[in-house]
Specification:
Length: about 260
């Protein structure tokens, strides 16, 4: 009998089972590097296989989420086709239909971004549920925030260092840092693995514009760092409460409920 050694965490989006949260699945690796799913994992895999979806727990891009997104995009395409056909016979204004289709596209984008955020974070910090809890609470209160998660690239030469913290990541500590009036709330919090490395860090600003909207300083800072490193930067807007993240020079909106 082979000895089981290291544990790997694979996440599957809970909305496939009826809600919007993510589910942790423990998978064991043997010495031969072969993935051995747990009993719970096997049951879930069978559910997917009945739908013709085969799970590769080592690759986020081959997850069941892609099948879900594909189905939702096909539904949008069907709605567009119906609108095109209706133009020949329907005398009603189509603006309402366009608005509904636009809302569906936005929802699909947010769902995909939410899932991939989890994929990008989980290999580099075990504290991503704390980060989720934190940004959701800040979003509800409309407290602005800027959180940098260091990945493989060193950020030492890319940011102007702030105040060293060196404490374990907890949602309450991060929320207190970004509480309005706190001297540290204007800068960025830097997360390195499972620690809050520092606060009040200054990030490089991006010169880019996204569409006609003028970006605020936090969003420009998030984009700026993501343009010159592989860091992932989470942003909470104090004006709207919306949550987004910057990664590899792009800004993605994410859902405000059940992020991780």
């Amino acid at each position: 009998m082979k000895k089981l050694k290291s544990k790997v965490i694979y996440t599957i989006p809970h909305h496939i089972f009826g809600n919007n949260y993510f589910r942790k699945i423990d998978i064991m690796k043997s010495k031969t590097n072969k993935i051995i799913p747990s009993r719970e994992t096997k049951k879930i895999h069978k559910k997917f296989e009945k739908r013709g979806v085969f799970v590769d727990p080592t690759n986020c891009d081959m997850s069941p989420m892609k099948q879900t997104l594909k189905e939702e995009l096909l539904h949008v395409i069907h709605s567009l086709q119906q609108s095109v056909e209706a133009m020949d016979t329907d005398t009603n204004c189509l603006l309402g239909n366009f608005e509904k289709i636009k809302e569906k596209f936005v929802a699909i984008e947010m769902k995909a971004a939410t899932f991939y955020l989890n994929c990008y974070l989980s290999p580099f910090t075990e504290k991503y549920p704390e980060l989720s809890h934190c940004v959701q609470n800040m979003s509800k209160r409309r407290h602005g925030g800027l959180i940098v998660i260091e990945r493989e690239d060193s950020l030492a030469t890319l940011i102007r260092p702030g105040i060293h913290i060196g404490a374990e990541v907890t949602h309450s500590l991060i929320e207190s840092i970004f509480f309005p009036g706190n001297p540290l709330h204007d800068g960025a919090v830097l997360i390195s693995q499972n620690l809050i490395d520092s606060a009040a860090n200054v990030l490089p600003l991006s010169d880019r514009h996204t569409g006609e909207k003028k970006l605020g300083t936090r969003h420009r800072a998030a984009l700026g760092l993501s343009e010159v490193s592989d860091a992932l930067v989470m942003v909470v807007s104090e004006e709207t409460g919306r949550i987004s993240f910057a990664f590899k020079g792009n800004l993605y909106p994410i859902t405000t409920h059940g992020i991780i």
